[in-house]
Write a structure and sequence with these properties.
alpha/beta; TIM Barrel; Defensin A-like; Rossmann fold; 8-stranded parallel beta sheet; 6-stranded mixed beta sheet; elongated; EC 3.2.1.39; signal; glycoprotein; carbohydrate metabolism
Length: 570
């Protein structure tokens, strides 16, 4: 395998896209027969969930029948975490098949508030990233849901839009309103259709002829370049269990999977229709803008061929990157930078010390979306242990002189995974660098306190850093104790030029905003994933701080599959 080699290549092709179809798993026992029928006329499916009890993983079924898939996570039911795990499992077996993940479906029209949906989108993305899966994550809502809750768009890599002319308004007009508000880069139609029978709605008649005409209109509209990357037509087959009657008859096929009329799903492409990849740039990266990633094997020539081939066959691919046997398919090539190791990129200057500010590994409180402050002394879960082990591997060749942590178990356990590779380093726990205290909210689900959560964060965003959690701390409280404790640590151990300190998510965001920006409002733009590393150089004589890397999670590459490790030299 290759290690520490990065290749970036630009592609010259404008790729083919094709309309797909939404699939309801109500008759999941026949999923293989259904996907075989779908593949006769479509290249892509969208599902509302990925886990089906007692049945096949939906990604497995799609791949086995040559279909790409937009996999769903259903958030209004008991199988939410099962869906996430099914995506992880399916991706590892068929990385080429998964095009994106959609979290939820029309939830904003079904009693959920926007913060609840944002939290779910972020949680799914974080769990997939922790499993080394860099696929796009978004949500599906009606156009009205998106327009009335634009904050959700910022949390999404891709935005699925459900628009039905049958229920009012024109597809083109409503789509154009979405493009005008959000731009077209992240948008795609995830549902549109017309029922073949079952009555009328607001003067629109459900009938065979109207349904066929509407499908042909959508096909022509899509072929002209509208609707996003892969318009998903609703739906594959009728669902007799729905009501009212017209809801039963949206299928292009009947309930027995027989097509109702002859058609071919349209494709679209732009010239040139064939192309090749440019010569590689070595040890270079164009960070972000990943459409998806997948693991590859072979010698370097084979790796380049596999990555180039996938890029030229993927709609919207502008280039690719290869690092540690993973190919990243990218939508945009910008922000070029040289690849650097955790410590080697920037030499440590005389009079400066290097602080590696880390976050602990995942706990069940993280996984379940609960408040977890200084009042909760939780342990790492299985994934958190693996993340911490991977973090330890990343520090193997960093000449650490000290490894410290907060007094909480999740931080101490993570620090232990680092210090085991540095038997001569000083170790210890530090008072004052624990997570923010959430008071009465400790242990509660974030979703249950969504209104309070939004209220406190909104006050912080407005500059009121004295806003505190009931019975807990404010951002100003954490800044005061946190910066004092870290300065004391650095001063006490001034002879140690490189130290790692394991702390907590909100704590790190507060401290980084204070040290780097002098404004705690900046913490809203600082991400801190589990076991991330922030590389900071500190000049004790002047108090100057320089950041070389923030929220670095490159060590996640050492986690291979959710139950195994892939050990590579740094």
């Amino acid at each position: 395998m290759i290690s520490k080699i990065l290749v970036v290549v630009a592609t010259l092709i404008a790729n083919v896209a094709a309309m797909g179809v939404a699939y309801d798993t109500y008759n999941f026992q026949n999923i293989d027969r259904h996907f075989d029928v779908i593949h006769q006329r479509f290249q892509t499916v969208r599902t509302f969930q990925t886990y089906i009890y007692g049945s096949r993983n939906v990604i497995d079924a799609a791949s086995d029948h040559g279909l790409g898939i937009y996999a769903g996570v259903w958030i209004r039911g008991p199988d939410y975490y099962n869906d996430i795990q099914a995506i992880i499992d399916g991706y590892y077996r068929h990385p080429h098949a998964l095009k994106a993940v959609f979290v939820g479906n029309e939830d904003l029209d079904n009693g959920w508030n926007v913060q609840q949906v944002i939290d779910k989108v972020n949680e799914v993305r974080n769990r997939l990233r922790a499993a080394n899966i860099q696929v796009r994550v978004g949500s599906v809502q009606t156009d009205g849901g998106w327009l009335n809750n634009p904050r959700l768009a910022d949390a999404c890599d891709i935005m699925g839009v459900n628009i039905y002319s049958f229920f009012g308004g024109s597809l083109e007009g409503r789509w154009n309103a979405m493009v005008s508000r959000f731009g077209g880069n992240k948008l795609m139609i995830t549902e549109t259709g017309w029922p073949f029978g079952g009555g009328s709605y607001g003067g629109n008649v459900a009938s065979y002829s109207n349904a066929v005409n509407y499908f042909n209109q959508v096909a022509s509209w899509y072929s002209a370049g509208n609707g996003g990357e892969d318009v998903m037509y609703f739906m594959f087959h009728d669902n007799p269990g729905k009501s009212p009657d017209y809801e039963k008859q949206f299928g292009l096929a009947d309930s027995n999977a027989n097509w109702k009329f002859n058609f071919a799903a349209p494709t679209r492409s732009s010239s040139p229709s064939h192309g090749s990849c440019s010569p590689p740039e070595w040890n270079t990266d164009y960070p972000g803008n990943d459409l998806f990633s997948f693991r590859i094997t072979g010698d370097m020539a084979s790796l380049i061929a596999q990555c180039c081939g996938k890029c030229t066959s993927t709609s919207g691919c502008a280039g690719y990157a290869i690092t540690n046997n993973i190919c990243y398919i990218k939508s945009v090539m910008k922000g070029r930078r040289a690849l650097a190791a955790l410590d080697a990129a920037n030499p440590l200057l005389p009079g400066w010390s290097r602080l590696f500010l880390c976050r602990h590994g995942e706990t069940n409180y993280n996984r379940e979306g609960r408040f977890q402050g200084r009042g909760i002394d939780s342990a790492l879960n299985d994934l958190g242990v693996k993340q911490a082990q991977a973090l330890g591997i990343a520090f193997q060749r960093v000449p650490l002189k000290g490894v410290f942590s907060s007094t909480l178990s999740r931080a101490k356990s993570t620090a232990a995974m680092i210090s085991q590779h540095h038997p001569g380093a000083q170790t210890g726990v530090v008072d004052g660098i624990e997570e923010m205290g959430y008071g009465e909210n400790e242990g509660k689900l974030l979703a249950e306190s969504a209104h309070l959560l939004s209220a406190v964060i909104d006050r912080w965003n407005d500059g009121d850093m004295a806003a505190a959690w009931p019975g807990g701390e404010s951002a100003s409280d954490v800044e005061a104790r946190g910066t004092k404790a870290l300065i004391k640590l650095a001063t006490t151990h001034a002879d140690l030029d490189r130290i790692a300190v394991v702390c907590h998510g909100r704590f790190n965001r507060v401290v980084l905003a204070s040290l780097l920006h002098g404004d705690l409002r900046a913490m809203s733009g600082i991400e801190q994933d589990n076991t991330c590393v922030n590389v900071l150089d500190v000049q004790l004589a002047t108090g100057a701080v320089q950041a070389h890397s923030l929220n670095n999670t490159h060590h996640w590459q050492y986690i291979f599959h959710h139950t195994h490790f892939w050990f590579c030299p740094l």
